[in-house]
Amino acid sequence: MSGDNYFTKLMISAIDEMKTNNIDWPIHWKSAEKNKFLDDILVWLEKEQLYEHCQIILDAKKKIKKI
Description:
Blueprint: H1 5-20, H2 31-47, H3 54-66
Helix pairs in contact: 1-3, 2-3
């Protein structure tokens, strides 16, 4: 984990919320923008070696495709 401890804790907390709560997306975002946002989070998780949180993001991406 990097030295950005506060930012890392904030991101992990937000990602953990995705497990139990629906994401409150900006109303003007289309599926492509939502997926881009989640892809960027996946890249960050991999860079920080936080692999255990990747499944939460992948599950969120599956929900977007169903809508």
